[in-house]
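Sample intake sheet
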Amino acid sequence: MSFSIKPLLSACLFAASCAVPAAFAETITFDNADVSSVAIRPTIITTQGFVFTALDYELLGQGVAPYNNGTNMLQFAPYDILAHADTNAVTFRRQDAALFNLNSLEFSPGAYANNAGKMGIKGIFADGSTVSRVVEVHDGSGLTLVGFEGWNSLAAVVLTGNLLSQSYVQVDNINVTAVPEPETYAMLVAGLGLMGVVARKRKASAQSAS
C-alpha cells in the first residue's frame, strides 16, 4: 500500500500557521479603549487584547485622554489621590496571559509638567525576574519614541511616573510582538523535518529513474 506524505506535511504546516497568534505584531493605541466598565479602584482598561490596571488614573477621563493630534492616549499620574501617596503605577499584560515582547512606546509630559517628564519602566518575565530603566524628556511639544532591546518574553510591564513632579504622564503607540507558544515551534520543526524527508525521497526517486 502506497502512502503519500504530502497530506501529512500540509496538515502539519497548516496547524503550525494557525497556532501562531493572529496579532503577531501590534501597536497598542487607546482610540478604542474599553472604559465602559472602569472601576475606581483598581482602574482597569482593556484595548486590543491587553489589560491596563492601576490603583487610580486620577479619575480623569477614566485613564484615557485626548492628545493634541486628535488621538487618545493613556494618561496617569504618580500620585494616588485616595491614598495620598506616591504609589500609583500602571501595569499592562495580555488578556490571555500569554507572553509578549516590548519593542517601543511613545510618551510625553502631561498637564502641569512644565515640559518635563520622567517615567520608570519595568518588565516582568515569566519567572518573576525583572528588567528596568528610566526615561526622561524635556519636551512637551510631542511624543518621544523610546525603544527597547531584549525586552522579550514578558509577562507584564509596569509604568511609573511622573518621577519629577505630581503631573501627568501620557503614553501611546506601545509596540509589542506576540511570543509563539512552544507547541508552535514544535509543529514548525516537525513540518521542516517532513519537508526534508520529501526532498530526500524525490532526489532518490530521480536518481533511480535516471
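Comment: The longest strand covers residues 100-109. The two ends are 24 Å apart (CA to CA).
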